[in-house]
UniProtKB/TrEMBL annotation:
Species of provenance: Glycomyces niveus
Protein name: Amidohydrolase family protein
Native organism taxonomy: Bacteria, Bacillati, Actinomycetota, Actinomycetes, Glycomycetales
Occurrences of domain Amidohydrolase-related (ranges): 54-390
Pfam families: Amidohydro_1 (PF01979)
InterPro entries listed in its UniProt record: Amidohydro-rel (IPR006680), Metal-dep_hydrolase_composite (IPR011059), Metal_Hydrolase (IPR032466), Metallo-dep_Hydrolase (IPR051781), OTAase-like (IPR057744)
UniProt cross-references to PANTHER family, sorted A to Z: ALPHA-D-RIBOSE 1-METHYLPHOSPHONATE 5-TRIPHOSPHATE DIPHOSPHATASE (PTHR43135)
Length: 410
């Protein structure tokens, strides 16, 4: 079994929000074996001298769409699944080389991509997929224009969602996604920017439908993630048992109270609205979606600050589409404008791991955790910008004990 000893490492303690200097970290196989200042190198171990560089856990992005190679989501369902899968594999490799060793895809990725990463067929982050997101007719992943009545919901169509209506249909739809091994079920609780026929301020699915989906997820020991913007939509979801709210840009104090009451999670995705405003049209975002974007763009930072101040569980999310996905790391500095760096880092490590029910395996450098490790030239606790330029500052990537990139020259 391969053993690696990192020496003279400044270890980022993500739980405490501190940098512990001059540490040694021993990796055995795919697991962190020990952490301390006086560990001895086992015979035959590979030794990596970090000379005071930062050793931190691999990053976790809790809201990506690896299939969404264009911002024109309405066209995805008509494309070849093989073509979309190859594009997704390329994007996942890029995500890994930005430092994201784990991602959650709440709409689009399936068991095939998960299997390809798990078997080492492609390089990419560990993938927690939700299969196809569930939407009511005319909801956020119903991408039909007003004049089209036909829709193909075949499993192999590479679009992001599935349309279902009524308690019986939504139960069946949830069970189908769970049957494929989905780690969670994603549902649409409100309108969205990228969908053609709904309003941002609408609510979607009846309470009975939401509760039926939550029941099915809980029966399978899984959970429900809910796309929602307005306080009304957020509160309906949280009251019905939804565990994570995606986006949440228009939440209010009543929403915060419900987050705390249910120990639920908020996954803001501020960078996507910023980039859609700047370059959405260039990457295929339709004019109708561009017109909706300002409704949520300006409110997002206030919602993040309000939730953080109250102590809500906040996770890192990007939700970027098409060519805008290259800005995945920019979410760090956007959040850093209103909340402390240590808390921004927790959102992409310890809190994200908690949402994934992997708090003992991901997001920390502790014995027993998986060996997902990054070597960074700089201290992200004092300057989050060091994370946003991986070409300059990301010196080594280890995932599951395997070194995926090494610029240290050791």
């Amino acid at each position: 079994m391969t053993e690696t000893l990192f020496e003279r490492a400044n270890v980022l303690d993500t739980a405490a929000g501190t940098l512990v200097r001059d540490q040694r970290v021993l990796v055995r196989g795919n697991t962190i074996e020990a952490v301390g200042g006086d560990l001895q190198a086992p015979a035959g171990a590979r030794r990596i001298d970090l000379a005071g560089k930062t050793l931190m856990p691999g990053l976790i992005d809790c809201h990506v769409h690896v299939n969404a190679h264009s911002a024109d989501l309405s066209g995805l369902g008509d494309e070849s699944p093989a073509y979309v899968a190859i594009k997704a594999a390329n994007e996942m490799r890029d995500m890994l080389h930005r430092g994201f060793t784990t991602v959650r895809d709440p709409g689009g990725a399936d068991f095939g991509l998960h299997q390809a990463v798990s078997e080492g067929l492609i390089d990419g982050p560990r993938l927690y997929f939700g299969g196809k997101a569930l939407s009511q007719t005319g909801g956020h992943v119903d991408m039909r224009p007003r004049g089209r009545s036909v829709r193909d919901d075949h499993q192999c169509c590479p679009d992001l969602g599935l349309v279902c209506d009524g308690v019986d249909e939504v139960r069946r739809a949830a069970r189908e996604q769970l049957r494929t091994g989905a780690f969670h079920i994603k549902i649409m609780l409100s309108g969205g920017v990228a969908s053609p026929t709904d309003r941002i301020d609408s609510t979607q699915f009846s309470i009975d439908e939401i509760r039926a989906i939550v029941d099915e997820a809980e029966a399978a020991n899984r959970y429900v993630a809910g796309h929602a913007y307005t306080a009304r939509a957020i509160n309906r979801g949280l009251t019905a048992g939804v565990r994570s709210i995606e986006h949440g840009n228009l939440l209010d104090e009543s929403s915060v109270d419900l987050f705390l009451e249910h120990d639920a999670f908020l996954v803001p995705t501020l960078v996507t609205y910023q980039r859609m405003a700047v370059e959405g049209a260039e990457h295929g975002l339709p004019a109708a979606s561009i017109a909706k974007n300002p409704i949520v763009l300006d409110a997002g930072l206030h919602a993040l600050e309000l939730a953080h101040r109250a102590g809500v569980n906040i996770c890192y999310g990007s939700d970027l589409l098409g060519g805008m996905r290259r800005h995945q790391l920019r979410e760090f500095t956007i959040r850093g404008a209103v909340i402390p760096a240590a808390d921004v880092l927790r959102s992409a490590t310890t809190t994200a791991a908690k949402l994934l029910n992997e708090e003992d395996r991901l997001g920390q450098i502790i014995p027993g955790a998986l060996a997902d490790l990054l070597v960074v030239d700089g201290d992200p606790l004092t300057d989050l910008e060091v994370l946003t330029d991986p070409e300059a500052n990301l010196q080594l990537i280890m995932q599951n004990g395997d070194i995926k990139s090494d610029r240290l020259g050791s």
